[in-house]
Design goal:
single chain, 189 residues, mainly alpha, Tetracycline Repressor, domain 2, 71% helix, elongated
Length: 189
């Protein structure tokens, strides 16, 4: 793995952890590997984070910030709703075709935790709720009435997560385009 040059120790640790858990999963990413890949001593890791779970939760929180900034940017504020939704799925399709695509880091992480109250599961849940809020905002900006707007946002979230999962599990890189066609049928005329 080639890491960017990060002079801030905490930033390097979080970036490395995020990459490793996205690439290999939580269970397969031990502290020893994080220490080796990041160049941060074990003592320093535990100075910043009391547990591996706290470190992973922080790394996922960082990913949430970056992923949501990207997704909000591709949502094309100011455009008509059909174009905004199409742009979202087009961006997902581009992501699915990158060499490092490993699905949704949050779904993957939630799938590795058995306890709904686990801090990692809570970060994953917070990400999905944040994505849902964004979708509601996009629909609200289009002037759709409530409650149909809330239902549409929830349906879009399911389509987004479904497309991500199908692309990963079946290697169907066209899943975003298929989900976009389904989304178009849900929009009011």
């Amino acid at each position: 793995m080639i890491l960017p040059i990060l002079t801030d120790t905490r930033a390097r640790l979080l970036f490395t952890t995020e990459l490793l858990i996205y690439e290999s999963g939580i269970a397969c990413t031990g502290i020893d590997r994080i220490v080796k890949e990041s160049g941060v001593s074990r003592k320093t890791v535990y100075r910043y984070f009391q547990t591996k779970e706290a470190l992973i939760a922080a790394a996922l929180t960082q990913r949430d910030e970056r992923w949501m900034a990207w997704f909000e940017a591709v949502s094309l504020s100011g455009m008509p709703l059909p174009m905004r939704i199409q742009a979202m799925f087009d961006a997902l399709g581009t992501w699915f075709n990158t060499p490092d695509f490993r699905g949704c880091a949050f779904i993957n992480a939630a799938g590795e935790t058995g306890d709904a109250e686990d801090v990692i599961r809570q970060v994953a849940k917070a990400h999905k709720l944040r994505l849902l809020r964004h979708l509601r905002q996009v629909i609200k900006e289009a002037g759709l009435a409530q409650p149909p707007a809330d239902e549409l946002a929830e349906q879009l979230l399911i389509l987004i997560d479904g497309a991500i999962t199908v692309a990963l599990v079946t290697d169907n890189r066209a899943a975003a385009a298929q989900a976009a066609r389904i989304a178009a049928t849900l929009l009011p005329n």
